[in-house]
Design goal:
2 helices, globular, 197 residues, Lipocalin, alpha+beta
Length: 197
């Protein structure tokens, strides 16, 4: 029979108790973090599921390369489209081109939603060309036409600007055709194609 000094045995028991308590605390923290992550995921999923989504706009979700002409210039932009806040499709467009100072030549954040009373899409286009996007009252509206969404924006002076989003199912690409009006005639401003990255 081995005899342990009283102090050594009690220290050993104490250390085992501390290690056991530390393991329980780690397990509890891990469990709480897991539950918190699941709760956040469930909330985000339920918020998205309870919001408005559109099967055509769902095809725009993802990462794209936009190429074509805008204002007579060849451009390449990166576009990311995601559903946000359960009701809006957000597009973030960033030009690869740089201006004279080395800054991004163009950037836009665009929100597309649904105007239930009029049964039309609504589009707010905020970009780096000016700071009036939230104050000028310009919202584009469109009724879906097949796989196209022909937005019409009216500026404060009444002049129209057209931007048609058209989806090509065969190639899984989008085109944006933008037209201004001069002397009563539609004039091409931009012709671009979005291809998946």
């Amino acid at each position: 029979m081995t005899v342990h000094p009283v102090g050594a045995e009690s220290t050993n028991c104490y250390e085992r108790g501390v290690r056991s308590s530390q393991r329980r605390a780690q397990t509890m923290r891990l469990t709480l973090w897991t539950l918190a992550a699941l709760a956040v995921s469930a909330h985000a999923a339920s918020a998205q599921a309870s919001g408005w989504q559109d099967p055509l706009l769902d095809r725009l979700v993802g990462e794209w390369v936009l190429e074509g002409t805008i204002g007579g210039e060849q451009v390449t932009h990166d576009v990311t489209a995601t559903w946000v806040l359960g009701y809006y499709l957000q597009l973030h467009e960033v030009a690869r081109e740089r201006d004279a100072t080395g800054a991004t030549a163009y950037e836009a954040i665009v929100y597309i939603g649904w105007d239930a009373p009029t049964q039309r899409y609504a589009c707010l286009w905020l970009d780096s060309t000016g700071g009036e996007g939230l104050t000028n009252g310009v919202i584009g509206y469109a009724a879906r036409s097949g796989d196209s969404i022909p937005f019409l924006f009216r500026f404060p002076d009444g002049s129209p600007f057209y931007n048609t989003f058209a989806y090509d199912r065969a190639t899984d690409t989008w085109t944006w055709s933008m037209d201004g009006v001069a002397d009563g005639e539609r004039q091409p401003f931009a012709r671009v194609t979005l291809s998946r990255r």
